[in-house]
Each structure stands twice: as C-alpha cells, then as structure tokens.
Amino acid sequence: MSTNRLLPVFFFFLLSLTAAAQTARIKGVILDENNQPVASVNVSYSGSGTSSNQNGFYVLKVPVNKQITLVFTHVSLKKITVTFVLEPKEEREFNPVMTNRKEQMGEVIITANNRKQIQGITTIEPEMIRKIPGANAGVENILKTLPGVNSNNELSTQYAVRGGNYDENLVYVNEIEVYRPFLIRSGQQEGLSFTNTDLVQNVDFSAGGFQAKFGDKLSSVLDITYRKPIKFGASLEASLLGGSLSVDVVSKDKKWSAVTGVRYRNNSLLVNSQETQTNFTPSFADIQANINYNASAKWQWSFLGNISQNKYQYQPLTRQTNFGTIDNPMRLSVFYEGHETDQYDTYFGAVKTTFNVSDNFTLKFIGSVFHTLEQEYFDIFAQYRLGEVDSSIGSETYGEVAFTRGIGSQLNHARNDLDALIVNTEIKGFQDWKESQFEWGIKYTRESIRDRIIEWEVIDSAGFSLNPPVIDLPKNDQPYSPYKGPLVPYQDIRATNFNSINRFSGYGQWSLKSTIGRSEVWYNAGVRMHQWEVSGATIIGKSQITISPRAQFAIKPDWQLDMIFRLSGGLYHQPPFYRELRNADALVQPNTKAQQSIHFVIGNDFSFTMWNRPFKLISELYYKSLSDVNTYTIDNVRIRYAANNNATAYAQGVDIRLNGEFVPGTESWFSFGYLKTEENSNNQGFIARPTDQRLKFGLLFQDYMPNIPSIKLYLNLVYNTGLPGGSPSYADPYAYQNRLNDYRRVDVGFSKVFIDNTTVKKNTGWFKDFKELAVGLEIFNLFDNQNAITNTWVRDVYSKNQYAIPNYMTTRVFNVKLSAKL
Fold first, then answer.
1. Could you give phi then psi for residue 800, rounded to 5 degrees?
2. Closest CA to 349 of 306, 398, 412, 298
3. Global pTM?
C-alpha cells in the first residue's frame, strides 16, 4: 500500500477549502416498480457509461455546464431517457424507477439531497459490510467505527449509542422489529447476530433524533432491508471461524422470488486466545429465508423466517492475570473445576403484505411471532491465589509470586430457564401529496414470559466463608473466636416469574418539502403513543401510557458551498421490556415507569470535492436530559436493572465523521466522538454512568496495491477511552469510580481477488460460472493490545480490601477466509 496515498490525509483541513474540480457526478440506485434494486442496467451518454451493480447502485462522471442526455437500458425493462444540466463540483442523486410497461422520457431537475440525508440517517453499503474484517464481522462491526457508537467487547454484537445501553437500540429487518436472547451474559455466548449480511440490500442507521415512525427506544435505530432477487445467484464464505451459504432463486414468471441463507460459527479460535484456558465446544447455527410473491402490480406479499440454535459448552481450566504497576506488580492465579452448558433456541416468522391502493396511497400489514427457549446451567468452582510478584532484576525468584496477599475460593451455581413468546400485529399507511407526505401506524404486541432464576454464589477467603454485607448476621472474626451464625451464600437469587405484557402503540407523522427564499427546506412533525399493562399469576400492574412528540427541520441554503443544516429532537420514552422490569433480586416490578428523554440534535452535512473526488464532513451536536431513569449494572453484556426509576441523568457530546474516496474508487472514513453521561441516583450527586465512554476514534479504510489492484487492504481501527469499571456485588457504586484501561483495537484484512466484475473471464473450466472469487488473510487485534471488558473483584484477607482484576479480551488472532459468488 502506497505511503504517499496516506500522507495527504493529514493535510485535509488545510486543503479542503481550496480543492476544486470542473466535473460533476451523478449517482443513485435503480429500482423496479416494487422498489427493488435492478442490477446490470446500462447507464450511458455520448458513448460513455457504466452499469449498476447487484444493489442497483451506479455512479458516473459527466461534463458540466452543458445539456446531457442520460439513457438507462435493461434487457427486460423499458428504456429511460433523462436530460439534465449539472454545475461544476456538483454531486447529484437520481434514483430512476424502471418498468416493463412503457418507455419513460423527460427533463428533470435532479436534487442533490436525498430523504435519508435530510433525516440524519447514515447509509452503509452492504458490500463494505461483507469485506471489512472483525472478530464479529457484520453490520454491528461497521457500526462500531461510527462516532457515538461504542463497544469494548469484540466478541459481542451489542453496542451502546450516545450514553445509552444495549437495550436502548431498535433493530428492524424489513420493517419488522427483531429481538436478541434474554439470558446471554457474555459476548462469547452470543454467536450470531440476527442480521445475515449475505441477504442484506440496504442498511440505514440513526444515532438519535429519529422520526415518530420508529419505535419507543431512547438511543438509536438500525433499519435493514433484505434484498429481493431478480435472478439466480449464490454466494459462499468459509473461514476458520465458520462459514455461510446463500442462494437466490426466481420463478419463471418472476412472481416468486426467495433468498435463503445458512450460517455456522465457532468462536473457539477467539476464546482460546484469552487468559482463561478452557475446553470450549460452541455451536452457533441458523437458517433464514426471505420469500416474496407479487400477486399483482398493486399487491405484494413477503415472508421472513429464522431458526437459530446456539449451544455453548464451556469448561474453564486455569487463568493467570498480571496487573498492578511496575513498582508493585501483582498476579492472580485461578484453578477451575466444573463446567457451563447453555442453549438458546429461537424461532421467528413474519408475514408482510403491501397493497398500493392508488399511486399516492399505500397500506401495509405486518404480523410476526418470536419464540425463544433458553437455558443457562453452570457449576464452576474456582480457587484463587492473589500475590505480589518479585520485580527485583537478578533475584532468583524474579517474576514469581513472592508474597501471597489472598487465598480463597468461590462456587457459582445457576439453573436458569426462560420461555418467551412475543406476537406483533401492525397496520401502516402512507399518503403522498406532491410535496408532502403523511404516515401512520397502529400496532398491538403481546409478550408472554415464563422465567425461572436460581443463582447463588459461595465465597470463602483463607478458608473462612464470607457472609453477604447486606444481611444482618453475627460478626465473623475467625479465627480469633468461633462463628455461631448461619452459613449463607454471598449471593442468592431465586425467582419464578410468569408474566404477560399487552401493548398498544401508534404514530402519525407529516413531512413537507418547501422553500424559504431560494433555500430548500424540509419539515417533519409527528407523535407516538404507547400504552401497556403488566400482569402475572400474583401481580397486576396499572395501565400506563406515554405520548412522544418529535420533529425535524432541515435547510439547504442557496450557497455555493453544498451544505445542509438539521435540527431534530423531541420527547422520547422507553416503556420497560421484560429485562427492565426485573430488579436486582430478579423479582418483576409491574409498575416500573417508562424512562424519558428530552433529546436535541443539531447537525451539518458539508459535501465537497478534494483531489477531484467526493468527500463529506458530517457533524452533530447532541444533548439528552433523562428522567425516571432505571439504573443498572453491566457484567460483560448482561444488564441488571434496579427497576425503581429513582434517578435522573444526562448525556451530551459531539460526533464528527469525514468520509470519501481517500483512495479512488473506494469509500473510507475517519470518525471522532466526545461523550459525557452521568446519573444522579436518590439525590446522591452525579456519577459516571456505566456507558460513559468519553473519547472515541474510529477508522475504516480501504486500499489496493497500485500495480496489482487485485490485492486489497481493509483496515478497521477503534480507540475508546476506558469505561467505568463497575463495583463489587452489594457495594455502593458511588464508592467505586475507577475506570478500565483504554480500548485499542486494529483488525486488518488482506484479500487477493481472482475474479470480479473487472476480470476478463475465460470460457473454459469451472471458473467461468463465478462472478467473484477471493482468498483473504485477516489479523484480529493486530498490535496484540490487552483490552479489559470488566473487573473481577478479589478480597485481600489481611487488609480486607478488594482488588479490581481486569478481565482481558482476545489477543492477536489469524484467520483465513475464502469467498465466492455465482
């Protein structure tokens, strides 16, 4: 990779204002009348041109200050002829809709600003998602490089956005809300994200200030659309971490189409690189299908189905962690007995039908069922030794434990079972009036949860059992006097919850495009309503309701600079899901209130050209004021709530992202985020929330060798300042405000492309049927950084202190990957 390519990046802010180009570009996505992408469309003018890729995307450089006639042609669709004039440095977007009914001609005014840009939505190319390396490659892997999105756990697909936690993010696939398992407590148990990247057509993400049509969560929306195939195709990927296979099929009459994906994953390669030595036999697999049926030009049906099974068998053997300072190094050595057996089976099915009542009025009906069966069983006995390491160079015992500060053991036991059934039915409508639109929706949800929790932990230090500090028991001062009180577990949680939650929700929103003088403006205003009630065998909660007004305003001034300014916000509520209803003792609190956030976002998009290539600088300033906050603790990825709404909080920060073609023909970006979020529980004062990430830098970079363009580089870099390290069980979090070390991670991938759309294929051999064929090498955690996810708390029997022992994540790992497409 050429060093000279990277050097100009450091001078970007000095050069960007003076860069100019005397060409223009037109780009967009070509759709059919069912709003599905059309591949292999020829886009041409005056003998020059290009063609759309499998996602319907095309981009073309054109002359400026002259009339250009652009022609779109396809073997099975009617031709489109469009005439337009572009100014220097303009980058315009045109998304034509091709049909098989009549030829379309016309002279159009092409606008540079699409609807998603106005809404502050980030769109991510599916091809980029499939290529960028990561320990958990996929959509979430890319999201973690965006400003405002934070995670310090590469084994998890969960992410926190602008001070929120993992439960505050909405995820939709084909407009259908999807869920993650309830009982998972560590990232290495997760296995597979719901989203199968082999099936993805479009990915949209909003980090806040989103519209009323999206659901009731406090932080973010991830909106994913699976593709509707137009011809047969297949893709295959295999690596040391597992593999995937997807197949596209289309009926002869083009009315039926389906895309199906099968995945398998094994995390042994990653888990075995951690400090804890284990016998680890996981098995994560799923199958998904998206089936479409065009009943007529006005009526379409689709089915989305998913079956997944995660089997997690874990037998820890030993662990050794070195920590402390150079002057006072310490070591924790642990020896384990026992094992853990977990299993998560999920079944998901959804039917969606779209009826185009008229050209301006559309109705949609969506019904879905989600069923999860989960079990978490473990008995793990750990014996530990905490000691000071001899750091005297030349000593015979250099590097060995010279003085033992603590010896103890703990036994952890769990028998947790959960059976959850969630049913949704929804009706949505869309009405279009020239420059304005109105959208509405009504939804009913029933959640039926059957949950049994049995967890306990017994701890002893130097041979003496430790009692929990929150229970009034006789003082234990062994060995000086005998202890006559009862022996009880240090933690003991037992609960059986059979609960149902009925929810009604709805929204209405209005959008308008207009002008102020010569400036273009966009308005959006809407409101959401959510009513719910919790009931069970022994509890009945009161009916609760929330009203959430939201609004957006955007303006594109009539300036020479291509800029858009956005203002959005409103009142956001998060009615409690089942996890949020359980308190620290796992008992359901049926009257837990919805958390509330007043959210303000100010944003700016600045599009420009540099080095004769397009770039965009996106910046957002945000503030959230939260009330009725449901405080929580995080252990790896498991969240436990207090369920008492006894806190207030705030989150404030700034997100900046620069993206563009740093290398011609490839998209890369740099991102920076600053966040500060604190909470005040029971008026004790403000302290950092568990997701107070502060500073974040992200880099996603693509390159290729100048003389050998078939060899490509993909770089994924994330730097986060340390999160709060948490507190021991039953301890006051106000007394434990230490932080973990900074999170630093670089994943890099090298790929040799043998066949792609630029390759001249020979008509001999079995390679002639391949559209793409590549072999790659991935290096995860390139610089072998030690990153901590949480702390283990170990007691010193002499000083009665508790030490925070960091639990480190994965070290450097190599992976080999093969990908092919037919």
1. 65, 15
2. 306
3. 0.84
> How many Å apart are CA 443 and CA 540, to the nearest integer?
23
Whole-Å CA distances, 450 to 495, 606, 786: 11, 51, 40
d(CA 48, CA 764): 30
* The two structure tokens encoding residue 2: 């050429």
Q: What is the 3-state secondary structure (H, E, C) of 408-436?
A: EEEEEEEEEEEEEEEEEEEEEEEEEECCE
Task: Provide the token pair at 194.
Answer: 């719901």
Quick check: helix, strand or coil at residue 153? Answer: coil
Can you read off the two tokens belonging to residue 236? Answer: 């295959």
Quick: pLDDT tens for 240-295.
999 999 999 999 888 999 999 999 998 888 887 777 777 777 889 999 999 999 99
Phi-psi region for residue 484, left (φ > 0), alpha (ψ -120 to 50) or beta?
A: alpha
DSSP state of 101: S
| Nearest CA among 649, 723, 720 for reference residue 692 | 723
Quick check: 267 and 188 in contact, CB under 8 A? yes
How many degrees, rounded to 5, is the angle at CA 203 between CA 351 and CA 77? 75
- The helix (H) or strand (E) run that includes residue 127 is helix 126-131
- Tell me the C-alpha distance between 500 and 535, whole Å: 5
* Two structure tokens written together for 465: 């059992």
Q: How far is CA 529 from the centre of its chain?
A: 26
Residue 582 carries which DSSP code?
Answer: B
pLDDT at position 111 over 50: no
Give the residue from 212, 226, 228 showing the smallest Cα distance to 170.
Answer: 212
Long-range contacts made by residues 353-357, C-beta under 8 angstroms, separation at least 24?
353/299, 353/300, 353/301, 353/302, 354/299, 354/300, 354/301, 355/298, 355/299, 356/297, 356/298, 356/299, 357/298
Residue position matching structure tokens 């092409």: 110
Contact 530, 503 (CB under 8 A): yes
Dihedral of alpha carbons 307, 55, 612, 18, sign? negative
What are the angstrom distances between the C-alpha of 639 and each of 169, 182, 309, 451? 14, 10, 22, 16
15 has pLDDT over 60: no
Q: What is the CA radius of gyration of the chain?
A: 28
Count of CB atoms situated within 10 Å of the CB of 760: 5
- Specify the pairing of strand 788-795 against strand 802-808: antiparallel
The amino acid at 782: L
Residues 742, 718: contact at Cβ < 8 Å? no
Least trusted range by pLDDT, from 60-74, 152-166, 331-345, 370-384: 60-74
616-627 burial, b for 16+ CB within 10 Å, e for fewer?
A: bbbbbebbbebe
Tokens standing for residue 54: 């499998």
Residue 424 contacts residue 367 (beta carbons within 8 Å): yes
Whose CA is closest to 423, among 467, 362, 384, 367? 367
**Residue-level pLDDT at 5:** 44
In 132-276, alpha helices (H): 139-143, 268-271
pLDDT value at 211 more than 50? yes
Bond from prior residue into 479 cis (ω within 30 degrees of 0): yes
Distance between CA atoms of 776 and 382, rounded to whole angstroms?
40
